[in-house]
Design a protein that fits this description.
Layout lengths: L1 H15 L13 H16 L4 H8 L3 H9 L6 H10 L24 H17 L3 H16 L11
Helix pairs in contact: 2-4, 2-6, 3-4
Length: 156
């Protein structure tokens, strides 16, 4: 009976020492979620699947899903492997991340923006007419910069 009591004490001690909250206790840290979302964005911008990325870093696609959702924290070595596979500098995965001292709430629109970014880039890559691509880039740049000189597209 003593062994069972000691084992229970060890289990209780381990759960008390947990330094980061579980999903049930308030979810993963916002930085973990952000880095995971940037892994997803880099993968989508590269036109790659979770299976492909998993094969590059010797993980299953399910593990890639957990990293992308922020459910699993990305270690430094794994981030380095993702950066190499996706041809991005490591710092890119932290860009536009949550401020250190700010109370940050995950942006629910992030997934939709990523989907639209992927759709835009994948369709843009299919355009063969160089002049049309240049016009599209100019249009997007003008809208992004709030350029008042941007001419609206004619109504169809």
């Amino acid at each position: 009976m003593t062994n069972t009591t000691e084992a229970s004490a060890v289990v209780r001690t381990r759960t008390k020492q947990r330094s980061r909250p579980t999903v049930a206790e308030g979810g993963p840290h916002p930085v973990d979620v952000h880095v995971g979302s940037r892994v997803r964005l880099a993968r989508l911008l590269a036109g790659r699947t979770q299976e492909w990325l998993g094969a590059q870093v010797a993980l299953t696609f399910q593990q890639i899903q957990k990293y992308e959702r922020g459910a699993n924290r990305v270690s430094c070595s794994m981030l380095s492997e993702f950066a190499t596979a996706l041809d991005r500098p490591v710092g890119w995965f932290f860009q536009d991340g949550p401020a250190e001292n700010a109370e940050s709430v995950p942006d629910p629109a992030l997934g939709e923006r990523q989907r639209l970014t992927y759709e835009l880039t994948s369709n843009f890559a299919k355009i063969r007419n160089e002049r049309a691509r240049e016009h599209i880039v100019g249009l997007v740049r003008a809208v992004a910069e709030g350029d008042s000189d941007a001419k609206p597209l004619p109504e169809a």
